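Reopening: structure tokens for the glycine complex, inputs below.
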Amino acid sequence: MRKISNNNILVLGGGGREHSICESLKKSKNVQNIYCAPGNAGIKKIAKIANINSYEFKHVLKFCKKNKINFVVPGSEDYLEKGISDFLKLEGIEVIGPSKYASLLETSKYFTKKLCDLSGIKTAKWIICDDAKNAKVILKTKKFPIVIKMDSLAAGKGVLVAKKLNDANKFLDNIINGKLGSRKSKIIIEECLYGEEGSFFFAVDGNDAKYLGSAKDYKRVGERNKGLNTGGMGCISPSPRENKKVVSSVLKEIVKPTLENMKKLGYSFTGFLYAGVMFTKKGIYLIEYNVRLGDPECQAVLARLKTNFLDICLAIKAGTLKKLKIEKSKNISVCVVLASKGYPEKYAKGIEIFGVNKLNNEGDVKIYHAGTKKNNLGKLLTNGGRVLNVVGKAKNIKKALDKTYDICRKIHWKGYFYRKDIGS
Ligand code: AMP
Ligand code: GLY
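Re-run output (same inputs, fresh job):
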């Protein structure tokens, strides 16, 4: 692979995922400048903040041209759904992320279900309903528990595992009344599966997919997986279910047939792809795809990568992943999310955070900023629901957890909380 020693890179986003991406890129001597928009107080220490609205793609383009950006890394699916790859690539700026069409793997559950059927991929049995009203009629004839999903993105609130008809109707009424997602969204009703879940991450260059690592995500806000769904309260990497056979099955039975059919359909995929799977008694089932790195899974997965992240991005860009060996450390990594009281619902912002400044160099434990900002006096303040991520790694899970939670206990602000059962 031809190495460009003066890479200028723009990362889009302002969470812990983007902080860890910037940090991983910074490890390469072939990087000249890392820019990030909008960034956060932690990212500001290691990258230059691009003073642009990252959702105004014309501004992004102007910035890229002015600063000779070699490629852009969009963190979240929002950019991809809005077509950032298509827009910038047409202007000659490379993007490490799929086109709007290829992003359908995440942005339309209906599309992914159809693709699974076309490709012979194991997934829960499903039917499609025109809208939530139609789903209410169909559900009257169904047995519970059952799973109801909005076709389109709904900020992590579009899925209900319904124990009884009453719960299902409440969820669908919220859609009909405009309180949740889009009224027009198609609804998928699917069979309820049982088993442990795991996320498997891949770099994809249109032809080849290379395995980056896996994670077990802790999605619920409360300990013992109680309470509301969140973007993720923590994770461990690898998934406890990971072994060579499992990785090979996910690749051969799920990811490869997906990518082959995407190509046949004219939706060739490049970027990062992760499969959310369930280990059921009947085998490994695909639950969902995401077309970018997960947050906070990215932080834990990148912590174990030995291969330089820049080299992975360059290989995706050049279509040379086949030749790249991706190596991972044998360590286990843990990410714990420190959040604002009230998250994932209403929470206050602008509260002073204590303890972080003293903790910048803790060896195997890193602190990534998610929702933070600095005020005029240089004080670190909360600026979001998920505020900080503590990521630790060690030879075994117990040591990794001990190190990580030891640092978590040294950070505090009024009304903070974190799950104490990540990895247990
Ligand atoms: P998704 O957005 O499709 O990943 O769904 C969110 C969560 O809902 C998953 O992580 C699972 O915990 C749960 N879920 C989704 N589909 C099913 C299913 N068919 N059976 C059981 N649980 C499911
Ligand atoms: N942690 C789940 C996600 O990034 O979608």
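The two ends are 42 Å apart (CA to CA). The pocket of adenosine monophosphate (ligand 1) is lined by residues 124, 147, 149, 159, 161, 190-193, 197, 276, 287-288 (CB under 6 Å). Marking as resolved unless the reporter disagrees.
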